[in-house]
Design goal:
Elements: E1 3-14, E2 17-28, E3 32-36, H1 43-49, E4 60-68, E5 71-72, H2 80-86, E6 87-90, H3 101-111, H4 117-130, H5 134-137, H6 150-162, E7 168-172, H7 180-193, E8 198-202, H8 206-212, E9 215-220, E10 223-229, H9 230-235, H10 240-246
Helix pairs in contact: 3-4, 3-6, 4-6, 6-7
Length: 251
Amino acid sequence: MDYKMQVKDLNLYYGNAQALYDVSLAVKKNSIVALIGPSGCGKSTFLKTLNRMNDLVDNVRIEGVVMLDGEDIYAPDTDIVHLRKRVGMVFQRPNPFPMSIYENIAYGPQIHGLKDKKRLDEIVEKSLKGAALWDEVKDRLHSSAMGMSGGQQQRLCIARVLAVEPEVVLMDEPCSALDPISTMKIEELITELKEKYTIVMVTHNMQQAARVSDYTAFFLNGKLMEHDETNIIFTKPSNAKTEDYITGRFG
């Protein structure tokens, strides 16, 4: 199996409160994994362990192993800036920077030391094309990103992640703030992106998980209850609690 990320026996604590219990999950390269489960079940917390966003929270303690291409990302010598370049993150609400569309995309490559204007132009175009946004904004690259619609802003945030050429893209409910048409565009985009990237996404929307993901992981109370191919999870789950959640008995 060609795994991009492997998580083994992961426990996470906020102070004395345990939020994740013995989570083990392997993510195949160029696949889309959906994390589902009721609010507060640990799926976003788990997602953030994959690029160490939890480091930004006080009193977090982690036990277990999170591997990217076979290397432990929690090893003491890990370069976190480089890690977050390799494992990008798209958040629940679009969060463009208050600057132009062009500057939003160029920002990441510039931080990583790229100065060449011609190369930046190429990256901006390629990233916007990759996020299916180029045709809509190519004539107003130097206008403020704040003037875009919510759906466009979210695709801009995806383009911003793509600009630094990640290997894995994490998405925390990327469509929850969007209307159905924007949601459809983002879903189509996610499906296209898996040719080049490995994607792990949290979603509250069961239909969305069924539509776009190859694998689905069901979390409940900080535990990974079940993980399998999406069609199996949605048609014949092995855990009764998974079935209860998917059929809407709780959640």
